[in-house]
Specification:
The complex is a heterodimer of chains A (about 425) and B (about 350).
Chain A (H helix, E strand, L loop, with lengths): L1 H5 L9 H43 L2 H6 L1 H7 L10 H16 L3 H11 L3 H12 L7 H8 L6 H9 L7 H6 L2 E3 L5 E3 L7 H32 L2 H12 L6 H12 L4 H8 L15 H25 L3 H9 L4 H29 L3 H6 L7 H10 L4 H25 L9
Antiparallel strand pairs in A: 1-2
Helix pairs in contact in A: 2-20, 4-5, 5-8, 6-7, 11-12, 11-15, 11-17, 13-15, 15-17, 16-17, 17-20, 19-20
Chain B lengths: L7 E9 L5 E10 L4 E5 L6 H9 L6 E6 L2 E2 L10 E4 L11 H11 L4 H14 L15 H13 L5 E5 L7 H18 L2 E6 L2 H7 L2 E6 L2 E6 L1 H6 L4 H6 L4 E11 L2 E5 L4 E6 L8 E6 L5 E2 L7 E12 L3 E8 L2 E9 L12 E6 L5 E3 L3
Parallel strand pairs in B: 3-8, 3-9, 6-7, 7-8, 13-20
Antiparallel strand pairs in B: 1-2, 1-4, 4-5, 9-10, 11-12, 11-14, 12-13, 14-20, 15-19, 16-17, 16-19, 17-18
Helix pairs in contact in B: 2-3, 2-4, 3-4
The chains are: A mainly alpha (about 425), B alpha+beta (about 350).
Chain lengths: ~425, ~350
Amino acid sequence: MSSETNQILTTDGIPLEVSLKKAERKNKIKAFLLVAPLLLFLIITYVFPIGDMLFRSIDDKMVTQMLPKTFKAMENWDGQELPEEEVFAAFHEDFVKLVEDKREGKLSTQLNYTKNGFKSIIKKLRRASKKFEEGNYKEQIMAVHKRWADVEYWRAIQRRAPEFTGQKYLKGMDMYVNEEGKIVSVEEDRRIHRVLWLRTLEIAFFVTVFCFLMAYPIAHLLATLPMKYSNLLMICVLLPFWTSLLVRTASWMILLQQQGIVNDFFVGIGLVADNNRPEMMYNKTGSYVAMTQILLPFMVLPLYSVMKTISPSLMRAGKSLGGTPFVAFWKVYFPLTIPGIGAGCLLVFILAIGYYITPALVGGASGTLISNQIAFHMKSTLDWSFASAMGLMLLSGVLVIYWLYNKIVGIDNIKLG
Amino acid sequence: MASKKDFVKFDKVDKSYDGKVLVVKDLQLDIAEGEFITMLGPSGSGKTTCLMMLAGFETPTNGEIYLDGKAISSIPPHKRGIGMVFQNYALFPHMTVYENLAFPLRVRKIPKDEADKKIDKALSMVSLQGFAARMPGQLSGGQQQRVAVARSLVFDPQLVLMDEPLGALDKNLRESMQYEIKHIHESIGVTVVYVTHDQSEALTMSNRIAVFNDGKVQQLSSPDELYEKPVNSFVAEFIGENNTFGGEVSDISGGKCKVKLANAEILANPISVKGKGERTTVSLRPERALINPSTKMDNLHKGKIEEVIYHGDHTRVRINLLGNPEFILKVPNSSSNLDIKLGNEINIGWNSDDARALDPK
């Protein structure tokens, strides 16, 4: 009631809020129309693919749809003893239909992912099922192969019942759901993904550190040199941006190979023996060197834009108040560059963690990253759902880093320009 | 304590940035202990360069600067112990007011309780008690200015340099800060070298003013002397308002000279003219000329009123006088106002002592 009596009216007697909304509606619509193309573009190229990727990574409908009756019959099965005749009958019915559609091969591939040994027994079952008589399918199927009488294999089938599954994510962390339904790690010698994840983090971390160490002095020079020289230096920094990534990586291959320029130089000045040239490529060193060079501008630019705003009189003030040049730098200048450091490190780290071409070309076996593994599953094994799962894990990792950064430093503290 | 006459001494200091142009030429300047000296001049006159050389951020190209008898050219800025207030305050934006003030004390390793006392004292000096926990960004321009002053004084330097510290403040605040800085100077007796291009600021605050132009000190004297007795036409023009007549000396005798203008002759005080035939610019302050003077004055001429501008406490009258259409008079707005109307012909008189015959422009 009080709000009604307090309502402010315009001179024409229309409530002020209504009038304001009306007056601003046109502007709002205009503003929205301006962003609409970008919004649409983002939805089509970004939101939709990521949504699709998420769906693909957990989608496990294939087996569910191939064996609908079997899973229906299995609902009452406790998984302790072999299932009843009813389940076998349903399975036979589903199977006959699959054979008619010539899809039993796919079933065997899928079931083989869950448990090894399905391929051969399904092949045998297909041959045998042609001569099956009506009724008592349990006996007939169990007679095809002894594995069909093994409860483990029926449990494996049952595990494929849900339409959605997280097993691709577990696989990405070298884990799986075992026969008892527990999440366990795979054997030591088959754990390939964890190593890759750790290596990705390690390389991204060190590339960030190297970039920072090199970019800080460059950015400082850029911000303090007279315009004449700083423009030239800026072009040097930006030059890599204007060169194709592939060309740059290829030139690193020329420089770093064992008979390459850098090695020739080392031999020339007597640093290393000619017959003992170090390998600087097709290993981690190659990834470090090439990625640091390629990502350097992403560190220099945010640092530069922050340093440009720091008045030179602050350093002078620090010195005139009695601070040695180092104290003035460390207590006054450095803290003021933290927003730029944060932006640069976050940018370089996130770019490095998903880097693909450079490690693929110069990284060799020990210098490849998780993105190379993702590409491998996209192109070679065609296990897209697994590639999607790993892509999403990478994405969520980046989001976690972003969140951590926000917690520790504060994202509003970031400055890109 | 006997104050030293040459606490700071610039000895034949030259400064050039590019090896072609001298920004400061043969600077010879002594500053006494406890003095408030202002370097005044248009931009590019070399005053800030002098300050930067004294602070240690620029090195003299030639000559030497002495502080308390010691040559300081080879001493880095942080060892000179000179307090400095910068043009845009240069407060550390990531530190609180307290931390800003504590910075010079911490680097000198002064114990915390003693430092706290000094900080309290410095803050109360600029009446900012209770602001210690604020960040500089939360303060107004005037408050930031005070913090900068407090910070430059908190470690008890013998010498404080101020580089146009009030340039960014609005007029009223600037005036009140002028008095505040002047009072702080008087109460603690620190030597202050102050740089400004604002002449009223310089006149208000200083013991002595060094007027800079073209890399040289044109005149070094107390504010009143600077205004009343400028030694050359640049100073006369730069400080306060000024009416000028350009002419030629036709006679010089008995401490007076006759200056021949285009179509008249006036009597003037020969300052920098020596003999007949020299070109000269005669300078006269607007308030020294009177309309229809009641007492006898040795210059009396007729002029026509071209413009009348009301200024509240006084009226500015522009008169076409002896071929100078820009002759300005300031008439106090009293009840017995004269008949000042546009187009009127009036008599204007002044004493020849006040008309200073200086170097030609």
